[in-house]
Each structure stands twice: as structure tokens, then as C-alpha cells.
Amino acid sequence: MQLTKDQIASANGNLNDHEADFNYLANKLSRSGTDVESLVKSLADFQVAVPSWALGAGGTRFGRFSFHGEPGNLEQKMDDVGILHALTQTAGAVSLHIPWDTPQDYAAVKQIANRNGIVFDAINSNTFQDQPGSKYSYKHGSLANTDEAIRAQAVQHNQEVVRIGEKLGSKSLTIWLADGTSFPGQRSFQKALAQTEKSCQEIYTALPEDWSLLIEYKPYEPNFYSTVIMDWGTSFMLANACGDRAYTLVDLGHHLPNTNIEQIVATLMAKGKLGGFHFNDSKYGDDDLTVGSIKPYALFLIFNELVYGMRHNPENPNLAWMIDASHNIKDPLEDLIQSLEAIQEAYAKALLIDQIALSEAQLNHDVVKCQEILQEAYRTDVRPLLQRARLSRGGALSPLAAYRSLKVRENLIRERGMHTVATGL
Amino acid sequence: MQLTKDQIASANGNLNDHEADFNYLANKLSRSGTDVESLVKSLADFQVAVPSWALGAGGTRFGRFSFHGEPGNLEQKMDDVGILHALTQTAGAVSLHIPWDTPQDYAAVKQIANRNGIVFDAINSNTFQDQPGSKYSYKHGSLANTDEAIRAQAVQHNQEVVRIGEKLGSKSLTIWLADGTSFPGQRSFQKALAQTEKSCQEIYTALPEDWSLLIEYKPYEPNFYSTVIMDWGTSFMLANACGDRAYTLVDLGHHLPNTNIEQIVATLMAKGKLGGFHFNDSKYGDDDLTVGSIKPYALFLIFNELVYGMRHNPENPNLAWMIDASHNIKDPLEDLIQSLEAIQEAYAKALLIDQIALSEAQLNHDVVKCQEILQEAYRTDVRPLLQRARLSRGGALSPLAAYRSLKVRENLIRERGMHTVATGL
Amino acid sequence: MQLTKDQIASANGNLNDHEADFNYLANKLSRSGTDVESLVKSLADFQVAVPSWALGAGGTRFGRFSFHGEPGNLEQKMDDVGILHALTQTAGAVSLHIPWDTPQDYAAVKQIANRNGIVFDAINSNTFQDQPGSKYSYKHGSLANTDEAIRAQAVQHNQEVVRIGEKLGSKSLTIWLADGTSFPGQRSFQKALAQTEKSCQEIYTALPEDWSLLIEYKPYEPNFYSTVIMDWGTSFMLANACGDRAYTLVDLGHHLPNTNIEQIVATLMAKGKLGGFHFNDSKYGDDDLTVGSIKPYALFLIFNELVYGMRHNPENPNLAWMIDASHNIKDPLEDLIQSLEAIQEAYAKALLIDQIALSEAQLNHDVVKCQEILQEAYRTDVRPLLQRARLSRGGALSPLAAYRSLKVRENLIRERGMHTVATGL
Amino acid sequence: MQLTKDQIASANGNLNDHEADFNYLANKLSRSGTDVESLVKSLADFQVAVPSWALGAGGTRFGRFSFHGEPGNLEQKMDDVGILHALTQTAGAVSLHIPWDTPQDYAAVKQIANRNGIVFDAINSNTFQDQPGSKYSYKHGSLANTDEAIRAQAVQHNQEVVRIGEKLGSKSLTIWLADGTSFPGQRSFQKALAQTEKSCQEIYTALPEDWSLLIEYKPYEPNFYSTVIMDWGTSFMLANACGDRAYTLVDLGHHLPNTNIEQIVATLMAKGKLGGFHFNDSKYGDDDLTVGSIKPYALFLIFNELVYGMRHNPENPNLAWMIDASHNIKDPLEDLIQSLEAIQEAYAKALLIDQIALSEAQLNHDVVKCQEILQEAYRTDVRPLLQRARLSRGGALSPLAAYRSLKVRENLIRERGMHTVATGL
């Protein structure tokens, strides 16, 4: 299934209200010095990757409630991303996960991507589950395993993933390790760290010259006493040990309670080592909820640092942006639409911050004013700007409303049936 | 020092921009069915108490940096609240703390209150510090002390506080206990609970018939292993053991990491036992930061429950609303202005929620829609509504801007000097 | 497979070292006033239930690594508990989970239980997963569902579980609800609570007269914004709304970070409302790790309260003790042996506390002494007491060593094969 | 006041019971291959510094309850450490804090130190409070201040502290910064980090050649939104930016909830960057409770890493060990005695771990065995070893009992009076 520009335009209907809203806001912002046109362009240019595993219903260890019309193969997943991108105009990339999404027919997959205006962003390996036919099990670890043969198998899998990515046009490999322990004493921390460093270096060395390595961190789960790459400091250390094209990847849900994530973002950008970003939201742990559904102000503060860094720290690569959420009780596509909207909203508000006034207030230690400046931007209703950016590219005025009025899910069920199951968690 | 309506009007200046903003928003909201006039009236009616100890600079255990022009006595504190109320029109009450604010001249204090349109809300006792001249120390507890004489002294102090409150027109007593332990084994949990229950009952029994008892809870600090009234469940149990006019008081900062506070609010309202509310914000513990400065969306969700409860649970009393924040690095009055604005903003957005559509979406298990409805309200820029509510009562268009343009702090310093110190923490 | 007393005795070998250790310790403890014989008897009498689902390898949402020789049906599960009990003499009960363990042949199951000296403790229902053939899905809740028909199905399932339990000799039903929300606004907190209360009352009313209802609480997972029964206060309120034979059940892993669990235990016992206890350990969330593997001192402090309550609060029922741990990377039976040992150790140490001296030190506010008294008990190496208790009932000197030397797992694999999979999570 | 060897010996009384206990344990340990003599020697050699500010009663922001007989000047503080060391034989160092402890008479202070066998460990600067007579305030930061003059004042203060330390024989400077923010937007994270790095480098460059710089980290308090040096990763990065003799200092209380501290210790040791260690215990935040009073098993696991690192990572310096606890409700000296005992206990148990068997079990992925090995050591009652180590140096069999029987506090009160107040927090 594919949505045409005409379908979307017809779903948009009359744009008069939008025009009025946009003009009101644009006038207001212009009066206080904002270059609205350039802001809308920044929004329109901003693209986020959709991970292939987010298109089916996720689950918890207590069970999984499936969703109807899930994509049953990679081609259908690509179609789903195409639908998202047609509506939102901000989902212009996909992030594959191997072996869940190993292409059977590269040409066909690339053709669907092209047709939908989608590129292949960072590609993900998987050494946290055993694959049928694998010689060794990752039960006791992969890149950090005490057993050299198992480490070698895991390194080799990563290299294979890179070869797949090369054929599709990816330029970076994301490594997330479940390696760790659930009980004190189970491993030597020092040895596990040394082995992880060595394995990462092996993967890094074999990378194509124009590729980057993105190293993700996480404090716990699925291991519940320790994780080898537990925090940004460890990832940063490993990236430094690999080389210039190795970077840290931040996933918003991978932090201990109360962590100041925006400060981590700022630190990594200051050091030229922020390589990728996984969006989601959470209240307790790695809850993988819809972006912006729990702590939208924190997201805005993080975007403030990202915007600052993108302007002032050119030594960082183009960030690999991705949504990493999971949806047990929402239609996966609707959930992604809400996430994409929340990301754009936070970005728009961060762009509205009066950075010159803020710097000045900071120098004057005018703490009250600093807060006012941030809240001035945050309290602004930026939805007309998001609409304008989408419309400028042929997207939907309201992607969710269009998705429903165009009966996308109903059509997908008709095409695919009720009981398809997407690969993934 | 006192601000006149004229001063404020002149600080407001030209209201054309406000008119345009308000009309734009009111039209938009009216089209989607909101009764804007009634909403503005609700905002204008909403009043929050300012605690007398929030008018000087707070501190941490590591030190205190004083602020200039702090109020040196109760009369000056009342003046400060008067200034706040004149500007914001939402600070129409004060909450005193005994013995920090024991009036010397009741008539004078009441006169200042009247002149400023301020009433006396819940009054607070203090059994967490020793007072000069006290016979017994609270080092090892007050209402929960193992020593009967010390418990009696603490009960008596509370009764005295009530007598002071009666003379001022207060109608409720707030008890916050520091009682607890810093080391395992230090106390018997069961005995401490039983003694606390008995002491609370003694205080309750002696209350005037039209008074309420508000029982605050807190998980830790200043004790670091256990606190006698550790959570809402314990407070609720104690309130039930006292009687109908005993209620739980929720302070936003008094929860363990990741607590769902809005659910606690809903539960207490459902049971008719929510009696008071202390506003502040925090990232780590009882940080006592400006309301809305860290988690404004959580504040909105809490207000959603409060609004629901105020409509559907008439068995709850009129809530004793209070700000309980502390300000080491901001001008205390500016900080309170920011807090009051954030409270009004959250209240306004909660009032905007389309409750009928929400109920329907909940019944349909349309989780995506439920989120959309909340976010529709939250994303709206409600500042013109707040301005209109303030203007309708003679307040400032922008209280902070007026405070600065009228040079309030400079005047206070001139009147009071640089080095006054307010009583409090 | 069944272990005979002879096999165990032969695995125990020479007991001289044990005799020497026990005598040394018994003499030492007797000198300071401990009645060692009675203490050993208390330990020998203490029995903990093993949940039927703990006998296979658990998993996380990221995958599951199976273990060889897992029990393939209920009879084999009962055999496993029999092995555990023969070795440890403290696993004299089993806790079934319906529908995972619905008996096919009641007589056969009871016969295995009798043969192994095992009774049937609290029985567990499951309304957090959909069962094949069920009319309605629990995707959007069970006892708290907005839909009356779904609530009725869930109530009925619980009643059916009771009928199964009756045939086996159980006397209590444990309810754990996954009901809750993952997104703000998804449900009305007040309505969900009211519906849960009503459903619990329906189940309670239909209980046999000699049965108890145990209501479990949990702050989050598998729902990540709110859980209907989120904390002890909510469970306590629901138990009170049901009646005298409804109690709260505490699972050690179901708390927010830093919760003082021992205080909750003390509170519930003081009010006669502690009905059951699930043991496990955790560092981050509901990690379900081996008991005592992370925070053994906290476990000791909890046992201190349990011992106190069992002595002073006869209004509480005989507690339903159970282990609720999960084991991805350990042999499940070895893991349970370690958990049982840790429970017995904490119990023994709690029994060693000099309660008279402790009360006195508490009255004297001698905080240093209070700590010394607890630590004196905790620092004692009580393993000879545990050995003596086991030996007195024909158990193993060292259950783990015996398990390995008797090659239990190897035998189970021979009997059952490599690739059996136990029902459960 | 000073305790003589004779006084202590007489307080020790008859040692027969100790002999019996020690022999029983030593025999048992020797049989399983432990070199008991060498272990006792390691314990006897292990020395911990007492911070000068721990000798008076601490406080919280809610108040302070003073203790009688507090040391009124530096000489009296040195006497207190002397008493501690005489009793425990493990407090052979003191850590001064400037300006709280600036010596008036260096010769006198050194003489007291010599007489008591005490050396001067790391010296601490203070830029988190304003000092009388200082030109600039640290209200808005010190080493990270936006204002160059204030940064310079703070750097200069640190250099002065070094000069004081040089005269006393210290060889390292500990920097703890309160610098940070309480509100989003208050500072630029990137600039604050850059300025901190620059200031640290200036201090480092001016250090004497045989001195080390120890950089402490802390996530929050007294700032409640962000702290400049928020975690080990930031401290590690700063230490690397300074040079070879700059290290990270770990304070046990300075971590977010659920942090795996032992893994941080292992990581820093693996990289040769662990320079100092502050002991305390906590349940919620930086609670500064007696060492080992809340999580003794975690302390043991940390010591396991420290022991491993001291053996395998010679590139780390001799660690600056210090207690950093505070005592509102205990006699400060008794509290320190309990802390010292808990440290020695954890160290002794860590030394008992069978490292060879552990390595082997780790290689075999025998997770159950790994846990058994750790617990075997932890469950051992090592108190006779601690007694033997103390006795071997002329210390007390039981320092706390001796302290009380020798009526030390009563004597101090007689000497110093009831109402002295020690400098410090």
C-alpha cells in the first residue's frame, strides 16, 4: 500500500484555518526577531529514521498482544515507513536490524526505498539473542564473552551486518550489547571491559573508510546486576579507544533514575563524540514509550543542547536520529506518528530560544531571566510551524487525522490479513 | 511598601497586543466548544497561599547566600505577599509558620492582610527544630518520641499554634513531622507509628469544630533511614484514625523517584481525603525548586486530577493550596511570581481538556486519541487567558516585567537595608 | 526422579566438621543467653513455597535461553519441588499458577505431593495474558477493565482458580493485576480504582469461608505509566474494602527505588493486614534475582520486622511465604537452593537479635547501641545452625553440594531430555 | 586528652575468649588454604583518614543538634583523631579542610600528629561557601564561574591550600565542586565544562611535583538541576585533561539511585585513574551515614574490586582513603569507630575471597558457583581477625566498649565544656 500526494491533499481539505493560525504566529514571532521562513525550512529538512522493528506490536516479558495488519516481511516494513513518510514528511530513513530484516532481494528493497524517498540510516546488529543455526550461544555474552570463539562469532556477525548495510547505502553500524551480569561475581569487570574494547576495535578496524561506529550504552536490562557498557563514560572511553569515527549513541531510555541527559548530550557534543540518538520516553526504566508522552520539557531541554551542538560543534558527525519505541497497546504506525510530531515540536521550540538573550542572562547570573527565555519558547504553540513544514513537502496537515480518514490500517489488514506477525521483540 | 493599582496599570502600558492575542485564542477555543469566559473566571478565582518562610533566601546544608532587602519581621513578610498579590492577583493567602512568625501585634498583622486582600490559610507548627527556652529537645523525635513528656510538649505546641491561627482566621493546621530514624534498629516502627497516631488524635480532638487537620508525608530527609509518616498510605491511615476533618496533604517534592503523583491525588480525592497541596518542583529529591521549572507536564497531569476531583468529589474540603519552594539563587519574590504563573498555566490547560471526548476515548480503548486530547490542551499557549484573568482583577499583564520595571526589589532594599535576614530555613 | 534419605545421607558424608562448628557456635550463643535448641527448631519448622513457574528457565523481553531437563508437566514440577524439599527441608509447599499448572489428574498430583511431604500454598490466577479459547482479551485490563463483560470473565477465572485450589487443599488465592496504563490519560484513575475494588469484592464474597484473599501490589511493569494497585497503601485500602480475610501481599521486587520495605512490613503487621510474602532480590526494578544475592542486610532487616510481627501481632494470618525469582542463567533448582539458604540465613540472624537489649537501647536513644545489637546478630556466621536444622529433618548438610554430587540435573536430563520447556514466563 | 597503651590494655581485660575465637577461625581458614597471618598483617597495615570536620555534630538544612565536648580548635580535633587511632589502630591519618582547619601553629599541630602516630592525608579546599573577607562570592560558582576574576580567586584558594598542605606533609589535594545549576538554562553546559577544565589545569600545573590532584564528582546537591562534575565519566575526562597525577575520587554517596559503584571502581582502576575514596553509607542520596550501616554487602563488593585493583593495577596511586560521614544523632567519635570497624570488616571479607576458584568459575560460566564463592567469604564472621589486627598494634579488643568504659566523652566534656562547636558543616 502506498499513499499518493493526491490522497493526502484530499485528506488535508481546506487549509484556511491553518493559514490563519500560521499567519498569526508568524507575525508574532517575526516581530520578536525570529526568521520564520528559515525555521520552517529547518523543520522540513529534519528527518528521523524509523527502526524496522517498531512497525509491529512490541511486548513485555509478561506477554504480547498482537496488532492486526502487521508487516510480514521487509518489503512490507518498507511500505509502512513509506506511509509514515508520506504523511509526516519527517520519516525519510529506515534503520534495519539484522538478522530480523536481512534482505532477500536487495534490488527490490532499494526500489521501494527510492520510490518512497527513504534512505538507509545506521544498521543494527544483534548479539543478544541466539540465531537458529549459530554455532555458539550468547547466553553468557557476546563481544565481552570470556570465550574467544564466541567473541569471534559476534565480531564476524557485526562485519556481516556491515556488508549488508553497504549494499543498501548505510554509513554507520550501531552496536548495542546486552553483555553484563545478573549476579555479583559472575564476571571480572576489568576483563569484561578489556574484551569489549578489543572486540570493538576489531569491528572498527574492519569498517569501510566512510563508515562510523555508534556505541550504545545502557545501565541494566536484560542483565540486572551490571552491563558492560553501562553509561556514557564507558561508551565514550570505548569510542576513544577505537578511533575518530567511533562515537557514542544516546538512547533516552538508557539511564538511571533522575539522570540529567541534556548535560550528557552537551558533554559529548563538546568533545565531538555524539554519533547517534534514539528517541523514546519513559517514566521508570527503558519503557520505550511514545516520544514526548511523559516528559516533553526534558525533550525540549535536550533539543536545546542538540541545536547548540549542531551549530557550534562541527566536529560531530551528522547525527543518526532514530525512534526507538515499542507499542503494545497502540497501532504502531499511529504511535510513530505521535513520536514524530513530538520530536518536531521539541525541535521547533528549541529553535525558538533566543540564544543571544540567553547568553547575556547567563553572564549576568540572571537565573530568573534564563528560565523566562526557555519558557517563552516552550510555551509557544508551534503546531502551525510544523504543519507548514509538512505542507511544504506535500505531507499531511494532521498526519494522524489523515491516517485515520484514509483508513490506512483497514487497508493494511485487508492486504495482509489479521494475524501477520512482524519480526522484532 | 505597597503597589497601587495605578502603578500596576502604568506598568501594563498599552494592552493592544494582549487584546489581539486574547481574541485570537478565545475565538479558536470558542469554535471548539470552550466557554472562554467561564474559564477565565475560574482562573481569576484561583488563589494560592504563599508561605511566610518563602520570602527570604533559602539554603542547603552546605550554606546559604543571603538576598538583599529580605523582610525582617512578620509585617514586612505580609507586605511582600501583598506585593505579590497586587501583581499576580493569585496570591490571596498567606500560610504562617510558628514560631518563625508568631505575631506580636495581631491587630496590625490583620490590618495589613485586609489592606492587601490576603486571608490566612493553613497554619504550620514546627517540632523539627528546638526552640530557645523549650524544656525538651526534639533531637530524637516529637509526636513519635518514646518519651511521653516530649510528645506532650509537641502536642501542646500544636495546640498553641491553633490558638494563634484562630486569632487570625485560619481554619486548618498542617503538621509535618521530621520524626524518623537515620539508622536501622534505632526505633520500633510499630511503636513509633502507634505513638504518632495517638499524638495526632490528641491534636485532632482539641481542634476547634470548624478546623481541619492536614497531615503531610515525606519519605526521607532530614532522617535518612525512615520517616514515621513516609507516604500517602500512612498519612491516609492516620487521617482515618483521627476523624472526618483530618486529611492528607500532598507536597509534590515528598516522593520517591518515579512516583506517579497524579494517581495518588486521584486516589485521595476518590476517598474524600485530600486536604492540602504544596507546590514546588524537583529533579532528585525534595529540591524545592520553582513550580513548573522541571516537569511542567507532570504538573498538568496532576491538575487534570485536581480539576476532575473538584468537580466530582465534593466530599473533599476546599483544598489548602500553597507554594513550598525555596530559592537560593533567585530573588524570592521573582521566584514566587514564576511559581504562581506556572500553577495558573497548568490549571488553565487542565481546564481546557475535553473531558467528554476523553471519557469516550477511554471507553473505546483508543489510547492514541486519549493522548491526543491531553496534548491538544497542553500544547495550547494559554498565556493570554492568564493575562486576561489577572487584568480582570487589576493585576499586572506580566507580573515579572512589572516587578522589574517598578523596581520593587530596589525599593525594598532602600526601605529595609542590604542585610536583613528573614526567619525560616 | 526422587531423592532418598539414604542418598542424601551418603552425600552428607562425615559430619565431624559440622559437629565442631555447631558446638563452637552453640556454646558461644548459649553463653550470651540464646536458646540454641529452640532457635534450631524454629529454623527447621520454617517452610517456604516454591512457585511452579520457577522450575523452568525464565526470560526477559529480549529473549530466553532455555535450560536442559526442564519439567514438561505439572507432575514433573512437583517432582522438582520434591527434590528441593528433600535436600533443603524448607521447601515444603508449592504455589500453583492457573492456567499454567491446571492439574489433569488431581489424585496423581496430590499423591506426588504427599509422597514428597509438600502442601499446596496460595494459588495464583492469571489475568495478565490471554488464554487460548478465551472470549475476551485482557489487552486493556482485566479486573479494572472498563468493559463489564471482561471484568466478569476475569472474576470468573479467579473463581475457577479457587475451585481448583480447593481440590488440592490450598487456603488462599493470590491476585496480581497487570492492569494499568502506559500513557497519561489512557484511563480514569478514579474509575479504574472503583472497578478494581468492585471486582475484588466479588471474588472475595465468593471465597470459601476458610480462604483468604491476598492482594499483591506493584508500581510498574508491564504497564509503564500507572498500575491500578500501585503500592501497599492501595492494596491495604482494597483489602479493607473486601473484609477481614483479605490481606496485602508484599513482593520484595515491587517497589520504587529506595523504598523502606521493612517499614511497610511493620505497618501492615501492626494493622493485621500482612497476608503473604514473595521473596526475591533486585538492584533496579522487579529483577527477580536470587534471594539475598544483592541486598542481604535489607533482607535481614525485613526479617527482623517479620519476627517481631509473628510474635506480637497474632491478628495476622500465617503468612504465605513464597519465592518469586526467575533464572535465566542459572540452573533453576540450584537457584532455588541458593534462595532458600539465604532466607533461612536471614531468619536465623533475625532470631538472634537481642530484642530486650534493643528495646532498652531504643528507649535510651542510644542509637549507636541499637546498631551494635543488630550488627552483632548479623555478623554472626549462622551456617552451622542452618545445617543442624536441615540435618534434624534428614536434609542435606550442604544442599547445593549434594545436588551436584548426586548429579540431579544430569539425571533429570536423562529422564526428560534436553529440550523440554516448562510453562511460565 | 590522650589514651595510653596501658589504659587500653586494662580496658581490654582478659583475652581468653578472643584467643579461643581467633584460634577456631584461624584453624578453619587455614584448612581451606588461607594464609591467616598475612591476612591479619594486611588488616593491621590498612589505615583510613579521618576528616577533621567529622569530629563535631553534623546537620541538615532543617537544623543541627549539637553534641557535647566537641573539639573547639584544630589541636583538639587532632586529639580526637589520636583517641580514635589509639583505640582502633586504623585511623592513622587526618584529612584537613581549609579554611575550617587552617593551622595557627604548624609545629604544635605536627607535634600532636607525631605523638599520636598520625599523618596528613589529602587536604581539601572549599569553594562552595563564602569566606569572611573574600572579595568575590561563590553564589554562582567557583572554578566554573563565568566571571574570570572569581575563577581566579578560586584557583588561588586551591593553591594556598596546597601550600598549607605542604607544610604538614600532605601529598594530594582533593577538589569537590558545588558548581552547577538549579534551573534549566541557568548556565551553558559546554562553557561550564570548558571553564572547569581550564581551572583544574591551572591548579594541576602549579602542584608540587610529588603531589596528586583528586577530582571528586557528585550528581546533585547543593545544586538541584545539574552539577558541573556530575559523574565518574566527567571526572575521568577532567583528570585526563590535567595529566598523569590527576585522578578521580569516588565518594560512595555521590551517585544516582541504583548505580553499580563497584563497576565504576573497577573501571577506574583498570585505567589507572582511581586516586581516592570517601566512605559512608546511604539509602536515598548523599546521606552521609555510618559506613556499613545500610548496605554492607555492596561495601564488600566494592572492596572486592579494590583488593583486585591494588594487586593488579599498580599504575594507580596509593589510594587516599577517607571516611566522609556526618552524625547528627550519634557521638561523632562512636560513629567513626563504627565506620572504621565496618571498613575493616569489608576489607577482611574481600581478602578471604578465593580468587583462583572465582576466576575458574567465571571461565566455566558457573554463575551459581561464583555467587557461592563470594558468599562463602561474606558469611564468615571475621571479627576475631579484626581484633587480632588491632591487638597486634596495641589497640582495643573492642574499640567501642573501651571508649565507653574509659569514659572518653565524659572526659572530653570535662576538658572542653558542654557547648563547644566544631567548625564544619
TrEMBL record, chains A, B, C, D:
It comes from the Bacteria. GO terms for molecular function: isomerase activity; metal ion binding. InterPro entries: L-rhamnose_isomerase, Xyl_isomerase-like_sf. The keyword Plastid does not apply. Keywords: Isomerase, Manganese, Metal-binding. This is L-rhamnose isomerase / sugar isomerase. It comes from Neolewinella agarilytica. The lineage of its organism: Bacteria, Pseudomonadati, Bacteroidota, Saprospiria, Saprospirales.
